């Protein structure tokens, strides 16, 4: 079984895929030989691994710390670190710095020290605590599942007059629609519409809704003043105005097509 996936078991409790080889060195805490997939405390390592994930997801620091410690001390550090790297993208809110911490703790535990030794175990506990203390969220797997379901729903009604029961948030992504601003000089459609530097600066480069800080806004104004394109005061003001909280894609300032410089200037990928 590839360790990029979680173990999945059938109704009879057996693995659906081939079980990876397990190290059986040593004995349990009471001196009995360890079985396949057994931890030093006599637990099934799949159960402990699953418990660790649920503890991270539910922000239970003590249980997460124990589960990580149990896996590390029992010779399953490889399983522990693989799982923790999955958890930071599956069960935590995007942007959590803990993803970098987990990698650093793993490096210390597995490359500098022995993963099942004292230092390796406390690295495991540190990593588990950091994950449990981070903000939990299932947003990424929920998004992945919804987008897959929406794709299937769209495909089901392809070529018919029916609307899909679920759709992507951008619909068909048509020019002149809600997301028209995306069709700037960095796209073929935008180039055909002669949307060059003026369109990009005034519309496509806006940020928000927090907006630019004062320094960045000043630089943008200066860049527009020094440009070969002549911008009026309304265009400069709109370029640094934050997008709206309620409607991030609205651009009420009319674009009069005075470009003639499509493809020049900013270096962005199509």
TrEMBL record:
<feature type="region of interest" description="Disordered">
    <location>
        <begin position="1"/>
        <end position="43"/>
    </location>
</feature>
<dbReference type="InterPro" id="IPR008921">
    <property type="entry name" value="DNA_pol3_clamp-load_cplx_C"/>
</dbReference>
<feature type="region of interest" description="Disordered">
    <location>
        <begin position="242"/>
        <end position="270"/>
    </location>
</feature>
<feature type="compositionally biased region" description="Basic and acidic residues">
    <location>
        <begin position="245"/>
        <end position="261"/>
    </location>
</feature>
<protein>
    <submittedName>
        <fullName>Uncharacterized protein</fullName>
    </submittedName>
</protein>
<dbReference type="GO" id="GO:0006260">
    <property type="term" value="P:DNA replication"/>
</dbReference>
<feature type="compositionally biased region" description="Basic and acidic residues">
    <location>
        <begin position="21"/>
        <end position="37"/>
    </location>
</feature>
<dbReference type="GO" id="GO:0003677">
    <property type="term" value="F:DNA binding"/>
</dbReference>
């Amino acid at each position: 079984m590839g360790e990029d996936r979680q173990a999945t078991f059938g109704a009879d409790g057996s693995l659906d895929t081939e079980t990876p080889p397990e190290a059986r060195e040593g004995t349990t805490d009471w001196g009995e030989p360890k079985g396949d997939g057994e931890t030093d405390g006599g637990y099934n390592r799949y159960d402990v691994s699953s418990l660790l994930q649920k503890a991270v997801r539910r922000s239970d620091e003590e249980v997460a710390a124990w589960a990580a410690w149990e896996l590390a001390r029992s010779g399953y550090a490889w399983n522990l670190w693989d799982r923790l790297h999955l958890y930071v993208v599956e069960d935590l809110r995007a942007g959590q710095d803990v993803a970098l911490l987990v990698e650093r703790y793993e490096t210390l535990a597995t490359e500098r020290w022995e993963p099942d030794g004292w230092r390796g175990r406390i690295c495991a506990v540190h990593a588990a605590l950091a994950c449990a203390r981070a903000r939990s969220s299932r947003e990424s797997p929920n998004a992945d599942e919804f987008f897959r379901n929406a794709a299937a729903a769209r495909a089901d009604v392809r070529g018919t007059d029916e609307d899909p029961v679920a759709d992507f948030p951008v619909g068909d992504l048509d020019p002149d629609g809600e997301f028209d601003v995306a069709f700037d000089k960095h796209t073929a459609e935008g180039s055909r519409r002669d949307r060059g530097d003026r369109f990009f600066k005034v519309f496509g480069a806006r940020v928000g809704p927090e907006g630019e800080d004062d320094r960045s806004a000043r630089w943008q104004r200066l860049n527009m003043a020094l440009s070969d394109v002549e911008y009026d005061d309304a265009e400069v003001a709109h370029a640094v105005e934050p997008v709206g909280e309620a409607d991030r894609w609205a651009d009420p300032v009319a674009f009069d097509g005075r470009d003639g410089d499509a493809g020049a200037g900013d270096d962005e990928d199509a």
